[in-house]
Amino acid sequence: MYTPAITGTGVFTPDNVITNAELVAAFNAYADKVNAENADAIASGEVEPLQHSSEEFILKASGIENRYVMDKTGVLDPDVMHPLLRQRSDDEPGIMTEMAVDACKKALAQAGRAPEDVDLVICAASNHERAYPAIAIEIQQALGIKGFGFDMNVACSSATFGIQAAADMIRSGSVKSALVVNPEICSGHLEWRDRDCHFIFGDVATATLIERVEDANGPYFEILSTRCATEFSNNIRNNNGYLRRSRPDGVVDRRDMQFMQNGRKVFKEVLPMVSKHIADHMDSEGLNSSDLKRLWLHQANKTMNDFIGKKVLGREPEPGEQPNILQDYANTSSAGSIIAFSKYSDDFADGEVGLICSFGAGYSVGSVIVRRHG
Questions:
Q1: CATH of the domain at 356
Q2: Cβ contacts of residue 299 below 8 Å, gap of 6+?
Q3: Is 83 helix (H, G, I), strand (E, B) or coil?
Q4: Which end of the chain is flanked by fewer CB atoms within 10 Å, N or C?
């Protein structure tokens, strides 16, 4: 048996930023437009008018201030309200591959590795641009990696589930190194016309290089333990699949084919599940809350993260113990906890321990306990 370690991470950040102020202006213009078109029906009580959004509402509901996206032009156009992403030809790299390659190169550079040192690519993400061929195999080809690759989707937990899969293969000896990459184009699956969720997501790609401890070139995070769990729920759902179903009237612009959630139920049901999962995982490894230097949590909602941090640590987290990147990136699905880890792990001293955790639709939750060396 071999010991797996995280030796490098990389983050690709799109060039386009949408502030809350920009988003609110676009949404409110859209709402005014729809309300004007339905003025008579609204006056008669047949249709409810769309309510305005506000910067205060968004910040209080989520803690989000900005988000990065691959295209902002369409999102901010009240007549469009979705990203304008060009359909790539079959001879061009897919947009997910384009994002992933950038993140992977950064992870490889941090670890002092080249593509030929990698045996496996796992593309673990919530939002895939096609059914097949696997995005991971296209990333593999673009980087010049031998070996094999495959896609996986466990929604917002995809990164930690991917890390467990890669770590298990390294432990068994079937591979020596693996890239777990999370290219998330959440903007394409968000309903920007829905006031309750129009502010939630952003786009990003992260990559994590995992190797055998003995092969590490420099400082690394030993993966002490991984744990995953799932429990079925419809409270976070997206029906936009490869079977393009339509309503009986033939309309395919269905609201349920974008991101949907019952926020109150998610908050009530997911938080206890995640808190207990982390506590049980730590207990199985003989760790107490005082043994953790930091929690790198899934970046869905500041209130949720604050709750989990307090529950796990048994007190209010100190600054830096449970860092958020939500204010800058918004919810980036599976990539969120890896962005936090990548940006807030350099200050670890030899022997210090931290925990990465992601959670979301499924319900799903995955956690990874790591110890710094070097």
A1: 3.40.47.10
A2: 305, 324, 325, 326, 329, 330, 331, 332, 336, 337, 339, 340
A3: coil
A4: N
- Mean predicted confidence (pLDDT) in 233-237: 88
Structure tokens at 80: 């469009």
Say how many domains are in the chain: 1
40 domain residue, yes or no: no
Alpha helices in 229-371 (DSSP H): 263-284, 302-313, 326-329, 336-343
Could you tell me if residue 267 is inside a domain?
yes
Domain membership flag for residue 340: yes
CA pair distance 43, 52, nearest whole angstrom = 18
Q: What value does the mean pLDDT take over residues 353-360?
A: 97
> Average pLDDT in the 53-78 region?
96
Q: Which one is catalytic: 123, 156, 186, 357?
A: 156
Residue 93 lies in a domain: no
User: Which residue in 210, 211, 200, 218 sits closest to 302, CA to CA?
Assistant: 200
Supply 31's token pair: 């709402």
pLDDT of 211 strictly over 70: yes
Whose tokens are 């107490």? That residue is 288
Place of tokens 């899934």: 298
For 294, the domain range is 222-373
Residue 156 is a catalytic residue: yes
> Given this model, what pLDDT does residue 257 score?
75
In Å, the largest CA–CA distance within the chain is 73
Which distant-in-sequence residues (6+ apart) come within 8 Å of 198 by Cβ?
Answer: 23, 27, 53, 190, 191, 192
Could you please report the per-residue DSSP string of 262-279?
Answer: -HHHHHHHHHHHHHHHHH
